UniProtKB/TrEMBL annotation:
Gene3D superfamilies per record: Periplasmic binding protein-like II, Winged helix-like DNA-binding domain superfamily/Winged helix DNA-binding domain
PROSITE patterns, per database record: HTH_LYSR
Lineage of origin: Bacteria, Pseudomonadati, Pseudomonadota, Betaproteobacteria, Burkholderiales
PANTHER family: HCA OPERON TRANSCRIPTIONAL ACTIVATOR HCAR, TRANSCRIPTIONAL DUAL REGULATOR HCAR-RELATED
Segments forming domain HTH lysR-type: 6-63
Name the UniProt record assigns to this protein: HTH-type transcriptional regulator BenM
Length: 319
């Protein structure tokens, strides 16, 4: 131990003498004899380079410096005493930091549910949230800059050995279309969600607003497969990397978009959300993390994710 730094024992002795204002009573309180207590206080004063007590044969009083130092020492001791329960909380995942990234689509359904449950159970965990596309999240995970991510499946094969994955939600694709187009197709033209299905063939002439494939290949390929199953080749109009931007472009009349059903909660003037007629593909969202690095906080979050997945009928995956 560095001799120029007081130890906790000396600080506890200082508080006891300050409160008792008597070395004998302080020694009895500390279950020790008076000489070693006096020696410890003198050593503390030498370490600090100040006198903490004014001593006479009959009394001991705090000096001005000692009186000013006393509340600070009490705070230091309180912090030291909190270390053990804090360490235990960290080990149980009840405290700490969780760096979590998420795709835009999760922000309109899945993410709020998970964060609400996690926050209720682990209020002392500090969350660091960041919105990012699936490809960026995987790179951030591999680099160790985030703990976990909510991504659109699948995980890139080149990273599959490093990462664990748990599916959480699967949701059908729906059409986001300009309200004027919805009206021309004989459906409602008011801005909202409507249950009247629309055939993809009826949208064949409308430009498609979509994610760039390199950012979300699974999502992009699902949309292309949907058109392919209908015997159509989509007319790519615009590409955008954020769901909010895609829906805004639809609102501006620049095309239609196939989006996860939860996106209907993203309201935009001039946009109608409608289900697709016939067989409808689904988009899967899951949690991905480094399989070799699971902190107690992350383990607690994974537990909540797996409980949610089980409740909606998605299998648990090891990792």
């Amino acid at each position: 131990m560095n001799p120029t730094i007081p130890d906790l024992r000396q600080l506890r002795y200082f508080v006891a003498v300050a409160e008792e204002q008597h070395f004998g009573r302080a020694a009895a309180r500390l279950s020790m004899t008076q000489p070693p207590l006096s020696q410890a206080i003198r050593a503390l004063e030498e370490t600090l380079g100040v006198e903490l007590f004014a001593r006479t044969r009959r009394s001991v009083e705090l000096t001005t410096v000692g009186a000013d130092l006393l509340p600070e020492v009490r705070r230091l001791l309180a912090s030291a005493e909190a270390l053990r329960p804090l360490a235990q909380s960290l080990a149980r995942g009840e405290a700490g930091v969780l760096a979590l990234a998420f795709v835009t689509t999760a922000d309109y359904g899945l993410l709020p549910l998970l964060l609400r449950d996690f926050g209720a159970r682990y209020p002392r965990v500090r969350l660091q949230l960041a919105e990012a596309t699936s490809d960026v999240q995987v790179e951030e995970l591999v680099a160790g800059r985030i703990d976990a991510g909510l991504v659109i499946a699948p995980v890139p094969p080149r990273h599959a050995a490093q990462l664990a994955y748990q599916p959480i939600a699967r949701e059908s694709l729906v059409v986001a279309m300009p309200s004027a187009l919805s009206g021309r197709l004989g459906g409602p033209s008011t801005d909202d969600w409507h249950d009247e299905p629309v055939r993809l063939r009826d949208l064949a002439d409308a430009p498609l607003v979509v994610f760039p494939r390199h950012l979300a290949p699974g999502f992009y390929d699902t949309i292309m497969d949907c058109y392919g199953a209908a015997g159509l080749a989509p007319l790519i109009g615009q590409e955008a990397i954020q769901m909010q931007t895609i829906v805004s472009l639809v609102s501006a009349g620049m095309g239609v978009a196939l989006v996860p059903q939860s996106l209907r909660h993203l309201r935009r003037t001039g946009v109608v959300y409608r289900p697709l007629a016939g067989a409808v593909p689904a988009i899967e969202t899951g949690l991905v993390w480094r399989s070799a690095e699971v902190s107690p906080v992350l383990a607690a979050f994974i537990e909540i994710v797996r409980a949610y997945a089980a409740a909606v009928g998605l299998e648990r995956r090891e990792g």
